Amino acid sequence: MKQTTRRPRFGHWLLQLSIPFALAPALCAQDTYRHQVDFPPEEFKERRARVFEAIGDEAMALLQGAANVRGFLRFRQTNSFYYLSGVEVPHAYLLLDGRSDRTTLYLPHRDARRERSEGKVLSAEDAELVIELTGVDRVEPLERMGRDFVGLALRPPAPLLYTMFSPAELGAQSRDELLIGMSSELADPWGGRASREGHFVSQLKQRYPQFETRDLTPILDAMRIQKSEREIGLVKRASEIAGLGLMEAMRSAEAGVWEYQLDAAARYVYLLNGSQGEGYRPITGTGSNAYFGHYYRSESELQDGQLVLMDYAPDYRYYTSDVARVFPVNGRFSPGQRELYGFVVQYFDVLMDVVRPGVSADQVMDEAAARMRPVFEVTQWSKPSYRTAAEEMLTFRGHLSHPVGLAVHDVGNYRSQPLRPGVVFALDPMLWVHDEKLYVRIEDVVVVTEDGVENFTWFVPRSIEGIEALMAEPGVLQKVPPGPATFVREQR
């Protein structure tokens, strides 16, 4: 068992990180309107100005916000709507008229009954305040939108109309996974139905056939790939919280602990530090479960001698991260595990050294593979399968994995052009040993800077020595162990 004494370093750091954000809910809980404070209206206006520039002066863009939740769920706005307005109100619509460069926000009327039980919500009756908070030019009640569109259609030629064709991302969602889910749903002859976005586009075409409808998705995707300073700050904070949660789970790991308990240890840290949930479902796999890159069931018990793969991050003020580590259940890497994991560590360090603005992702991987080739040649591989895994790692093209931001698999394509400052992505070197069902990887979130790259989770140990030292410390599961699995009713 682990010793109960622990160094104060983590506790002090965690406390310092959590204090400023613990104050935020208290401020929001007062009798005031809830509205984001991370972006000033000027930043939303600048984003909308870029949309105006992209669609031209003979077009409009219309965005549909998220519907209200059913049941006792927390409402979360769609990423695209939040990106252009910061408004967290159900059933909101945003119209950008390129002919006048004016923006109209359509909101529902006040629901006094609901406000009495849940608190105040911005509504059409708060037009002056909403204009001040968001920088839009006009706020109207929801029913006015239909009348405005009829007026636009009556004066030909009707402007082009851009709207989102792609599925909207909500909490713990990414577009790639949404599209995969939609394909499965549409394949069901009894359950398949149109998406909310597809239904909206269909309604627009049926009600206003004068408009030529186009997809706004590529325009917003190109904008979101390069983050502003405030966005980078939020991804960085989400990454710090993710790293602290992952470290607490690593401390808590030992034989007899369950995968879901490691999830709980990390999630405790997320909520303690002001997160509004998880950025994606946890990937916590021990033994052969870790071989599946998106394993999510978290239902196995950790066994001595196994490795654990953990990949988990919070939803912090609409932004997330993507951090992963592989670590030994018993706190000590075996010789074979050290061999494989040590090679991945070296590859990660080389990637960090060669990422810089002005080069493509393919150039980065080519340079890194060339620099790792001498290391590969002099390594004494204990098994032919380990040598094969390392060889395949040098030719694999996915180590610069995906953008990260409002979604864990964020939108946009940074591979089609040289890297630019402000591009945030997951650096994720990985290898597979297929005959042993081993999957070894390190994942951190980085941002391209003016002269190189910054790693947001540099403090999470990735060296063999650093991980073993961290795991020698007790975690929250040792200090506050779970209760009994079953409860026996007291006999009377």
List keywords for this structure.
globular; Creatine Amidinohydrolase; 2 domains; 13% strand; 492 residues; alpha+beta; single chain; Creatine Amidinohydrolase, Chain A, domain 1
Find the structural class using helix and strand composition: alpha+beta
Count of DSSP H/I helices: 16
Q: Per DSSP, what share of the residues sits in E-state strands of 2 or more residues?
A: 5-15%
Radius of gyration: 25 Å
Describe it.
With 492 residues, this protein is an alpha+beta fold. It folds into 2 domains: 33-224, Creatine Amidinohydrolase, Chain A, domain 1 (3-Layer(aba) Sandwich), CATH 3.40.350; 229-479, Creatinase/methionine aminopeptidase superfamily (Creatine Amidinohydrolase, Alpha-Beta Complex). The protein is built from 16 helices and 15 strands. The chain has helices spanning 9-28, 41-55, 79-85, 112-118, 127-134, 144-154, 175-186, 196-207, 217-224, 229-252, 259-272, 335-354, 361-378, 384-395, 464-471, 476-479; strands at 59-64, 93-97, 102-107, 138-141, 160-163, 213-215, 283-286, 307-311, 324-328, 400-403, 424-427, 430-433, 438-441, 444-448, 453-455. It has a 6-stranded mixed sheet with strand order 4-3-2-1-5-6, sandwiched between helices. The protein has a 4-stranded antiparallel sheet with strand order 10-11-14-15, sandwiched between helices. It has a 3-stranded antiparallel sheet with strand order 7-8-9, covered by helices on one side. Helix 10 (229-252) packs across helix 11 (259-272), helix 12 (335-354) packs antiparallel against helix 13 (361-378) and helix 13 (361-378) runs antiparallel to helix 14 (384-395). It starts with 8 loop residues before the first helix and ends in a 13-residue tail after the last helix.
